[in-house]
Design brief:
transmembrane, mainly alpha, 23 helices, 74% helix, membrane, transmembrane helix, SCFA_transpt_AtoE, Short-chain fatty acids transporter
């Protein structure tokens, strides 16, 4: 395995471009395929791209905040000490890989936004304490936990179909999570990945001579200096803990109300609210909170300027019918035994071009549910096959890796050699789950 991962890393280093170049190539490719495989003209595809370009604007802002707010929280003195204390207990590189993967898997199964940020922050803190651990594999392990998110508590497809009045309720009805997230096949997939992936990642550890340790410059923290205090209201208010206490009380009161009335409902907005409120409280003063926020926002440029291109690709895939063409290819070769498996594979392919769980469901659901009805297949299991396909190929799609890479200070090519084998390994487990359950 060490030899194979070394080859994979070498190939990725030479062939995988920067994520912006990757999305630019995908844009051109989808435009070309739309012209060739659908009735769309080149002008049509350009219009679809332009119309969809800002389709993920709200989501882009959510991702910017989850990354920046996670940074702010992690850089608060108390939280930093908490992460450092846990990381300091880890002594061996092998233990570091196993623990980071396990923490990431649990966090992502609970909530993907929480898991993406916490996993990367924890991995980076471990890199400060554990010597001779491969930093690339450490961050790849933190990201690998993301593969279980769509089969977890915050999976957008299972939560969508469990909601009254969802877009496809007239076809499949309202499907409770007992028929999606908590089914034997879904729990089998999640548990097998959860208990074996940490050790699989450890198995990929390179030989000691090939280990790439963290660049000390990535761990260096700049000390923030503040101007001397003045006897003015502005100076006092910036340093006062009074506003922090008041805003903290307001925020905590809302969170208590939210969980008391809606149960353990963790959507991305609530995760962001938790990060921001705790960040404000733990930094103690507005001045320190704003300084941390200013530093954190520097890591979000990749998201700001790349997500619109994926929205444009999604616009082309949806409006041209290209996503339906891909889905129909897999339906054509499916039978009663392989339908869920090929639904999973088709979703994995579409995810390269539509890396949004909700967006992919909107694109694929009409054709896949129609096929499920014709074959007498279970609608809920069909939905979960799409969900797992959406999560699966994220392992080699740089879109979702951007937050973790921004935190770690790495490039996509640094971790994708390892992530390729995570894709293969988890793909086998997921395939077994849909074939034999």
């Amino acid at each position: 395995m060490k030899f194979l991962t070394k080859i994979s890393n070498t190939i990725m280093e030479k062939l995988l471009p920067d994520p912006y170049i990757f999305v630019a190539i995908l844009t051109v490719l989808v435009l070309f395929l739309g012209v060739v495989l659908t009735d769309s003209s080149p002008l049509d595809m350009v219009v679809y791209w332009g119309d969809g370009f800002w389709g993920l604007l709200a989501f882009t802002m959510q991702m910017v905040i989850v990354l920046a707010a996670g940074h702010v929280l992690a850089n608060s003195p108390i939280f930093k000490k908490f992460l450092s204390t846990i990381a300091s207990k880890i002594q061996k590189p092998s233990s570091a890989i196993i623990i980071v993967t396990f923490v990431s898997l649990i966090a992502c199964w609970i909530n993907w936004g929480f898991g993406l940020v916490i996993g990367a922050l924890f991995a980076k803190e471990i890199a400060r304490h554990v010597k001779k651990v491969d930093y690339r594999l450490l961050i790849a392990s933190a990201y690998s936990g993301f593969v279980v998110w769509h089969g977890g508590l915050a999976g957008s497809i299972p939560l969508s179909v469990a909601t009254n009045g969802h877009p496809f309720a007239d076809i499949m009805g309202v499907v409770p999570t007992s028929e999606t997230i908590f089914t034997p096949y879904n729990l089998f997939i999640a548990l097998v990945i959860g208990f074996t992936l940490p050790f699989f990642n450890r198995w990929m550890m390179p030989k000691e001579d090939d280990v790439v340790e963290v660049d000390p410059a990535l761990l260096k923290e700049e000390k923030v200096s503040f101007p001397p205090a003045e006897r003015t209201f502005a100076s006092w208010s910036e340093r006062s803990s009074l506003l922090t206490i008041l805003i903290g009380l307001i925020g905590l009161s809302y969170l208590i109300y939210h969980f008391a009335t809606k149960g353990f409902a963790l959507d991305l907005n609530i995760v962001n609210s938790i990060f921001i409120i705790l960040g404000i409280i733990l930094h103690g003063s507005p001045q320190r909170f704003l300084a941390a926020a200013q530093e954190a926002i520097k890591t979000t440029s990749g998201i700001v300027f790349q997500f619109p291109f994926y929205a444009g690709i999604m616009g082309m895939m949806t409006a041209s019918g290209l996503a339906i063409v891909f889905s129909e290819w897999f339906i054509a070769i499916s039978n009663d035994f392989t339908f869920y498996l090929f639904t999973f594979y088709s979703a994995g392919l579409v995810n390269f071009f539509v890396p949004s769980g909700g967006g992919q469901w909107a694109v694929q659901a009409p054709i896949m549910l129609e096929a499920a009805g014709a074959m007498g297949a279970d609608y809920a299991k069909t939905a979960m096959a799409i969900a797992w396909g959406d999560a699966w190929t994220n392992m080699i799609q740089p879109f979702w890796a951007l937050p973790a890479l921004a935190i770690a200070g790495l490039r996509a090519k640094d971790i994708m050699g390892f992530c390729l084998f995570v894709l293969i390994y988890t793909g086998i487990i997921i395939s077994i789950g849909f074939l034999f359950f």
